[in-house]
Amino acid sequence: MSLPTRRAAVTAAAAFGLAGAGRATARRIVSLNPCLDAVLLSVADPSQVAALSHYSRQPLASSVGPAASRFPFTYESAEEVIALSPDLVLASRHSSLATRNSLKRLGVAVELFSTPDSVAESLEQVLRIADLTGHPERGRLEIARIEAALAAAAPPAASNPVRALVFQRNGLASGPHTLMDELLRRTGFRNAAVEYGAKRTTDVPLDSVLANPPDVLFSGETLPGAPTWGERVMKHPALKALGGRTRIVSFPEHLMYCGGPNLVESATRLAQARRSLA
């Protein structure tokens, strides 16, 4: 574990340990967010998972894959959650505000999580959820696994960064100060979204990409059948026409949004792409 990340993890462990000192271990936990689904399954006992988010059953959005079929899921309504009698709900700031407010009024504990903008913030969330499940040691093991994957994915010290763009559906890309930007830098890439004017996660015009194409374009996968507007952007003939100037590499949608355990696969895929260019 790198020194900055280690310090963040130790600080988070101390803070969450103190916060949870008087709290009983949650026995029935509901997750309302696909990224939190993955963290929960990595540290909790299966018997503690009362339900996952409905995204867990969607092929492109699921961060847990086939494992989701073992657990119930909700569409994030307060009625569904209450029917499961949870003693803890994991929610993101993007989760339904009406549902969160209803659960709090009914006395259901809700833990709110932000979208992590760095690896350190993502690892803090792993520790926090592990603490809430009563398995802090599993959180530490998960962090060690993630750190090992990131170390293995690091480029040679003397290598030059490769210009890359992670192109999501609807033409979105993550700019500086985001988790994806840090992952690109850690695995030997330079985030081309910065050159296209992205400040955070924002729309990147296709014209900009065509005028100054990256060396690698990481493109999300598409659904079978009629594509959405965003999927048409990713499959636009103009992108394919870039030919030898840009290599287009498939990159699963859930890896574009989620940290936690997904960082292992993200780092591995990015490193494999960089090595294949060499």
Walk me through the structure:
Mean pLDDT is 86; it is low at 6-22. This protein starts with a helix and ends with a helix. It has helices spanning 3-19, 34-43, 78-83, 97-105, 119-133, 136-153, 179-186, 206-211, 229-234, 237-240, 253-257, 262-277; strands spanning 29-31, 49-53, 73-74, 88-92, 110-113, 162-167, 172-174, 189-191, 201-203, 216-219, 247-250. With 278 residues, it is an alpha/beta fold. The chain has two domains: 3-151, Rossmann fold; 158-277, 3-Layer(aba) Sandwich (Rossmann fold).
Could you give the topology of this structure?
Blueprint: H1 3-19, E1 29-31, H2 34-43, E2 49-53, E3 73-74, H3 78-83, E4 88-92, H4 97-105, E5 110-113, H5 119-133, H6 136-153, E6 162-167, E7 172-174, H7 179-186, E8 189-191, E9 201-203, H8 206-211, E10 216-219, H9 229-234, H10 237-240, E11 247-250, H11 253-257, H12 262-277
Parallel strand pairs: 1-2, 1-4, 2-3, 4-5, 6-8, 6-10, 10-11
Antiparallel strand pairs: 7-9
CATH fold call of the largest domain:
Rossmann fold
Helix content: 40-55%
Our count of helices gives 12
| Rg on CA atoms, Å | 20 Å
Note the gap between the termini: 27 Å
For CATH, the homologous superfamily of the largest domain is named as Nitrogenase molybdenum iron protein domain
Tell me the strand order in the biggest sheet: 3-2-1-4-5
Judging from the principal axes of the Cα atoms, what is the shape?
A: globular
In CATH, the architecture of the largest domain is: 3-Layer(aba) Sandwich
Largest sheet: 5 strands, parallel
Summed over residues and divided by their number, the pLDDT gives a mean of 86
Total of domains: 2
Classified by CATH, the class of the largest domain is Alpha Beta
